[in-house]
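Example record

The entry below shows one chain as it appears in the dataset: sequence first, then structure tokens.
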Amino acid sequence: MRYEGTVYRPPSEAGSLIIQATVGCPHNKCTFCAMYKGSRFKIRSVKEVKEDLDMARDYYGGQVRSVFFADGNTIIMKTPQLVEIFSYTREIFPNLERITLYGSARFILLKSLEELVTLREAGLKRIHSGLESGDDEVLSFLKKGVTSAQAIEAGRNVMEAGIELSEYYIVGAGGTALSRQHAVNSGKTLKAINPDFIRLRTMMPARRAPLYDLFKDGSFVLLRPHQALKETRLLLENLEGADSWFLSDHVSNYWPVNGKLPGDREKMLKDIDHALSLDEENFRNPEMVRL
């Protein structure tokens, strides 16, 4: 396989074959993100992607069961291109169980419901989507290029098309100033989407991200561990009635809060209350910085 730049994938795709169908991110303006700041976005040709798939087949043979097509927002590729790639992937990997990719609401909305159904029929199993927040003020601050209403529309389309949806929420994305509305409105947005997975990430400043300068000059105040846990609790309180897996599957988070909504909601709330009973010295330094 030929990789260009740093290649990222969700933790849940640790066992997946990673193939770059795109390089970088077509948006690349989010204030909190430094993942693709050194890459110029481009869509690789179907021919190149197939060549990489062939290399993987020759190396791994029948071991490949899951393929993640990087980079950021690969959903932006034209539907016929994705269908051709997915169909070829299924053809050469007979034991394949799952095809996944990144897709934020802004770019999911470029696909009609019919196109999403076509992608599912071609083999697309799951979309990883960075909601980050369901509050419009926080979304504007993060420069996500989307509103909560658009995020709901995109998410519902994915779910209606029969594609699994993994939505990501950033604890502390609004800093201390917007923490409450970030949690409350994100809960409402996520409940309206009702995705298969809600995955937590906690805000950690990245040195190359625009938000880092605001963090350094004090304009953006990070949540302390207890504040982050209280925000997580408030989010859960506003997810009453949701039917999703709620997962804290990332090293940035202060405490493992995992379960299936709605049944495990009370247990998760109790887990958070236990964590809140511990001294903050038991948690990582909130000002840890990502490179």
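Notes for this example: The longest strand covers residues 124-132. The longest helix spans residues 46-60.
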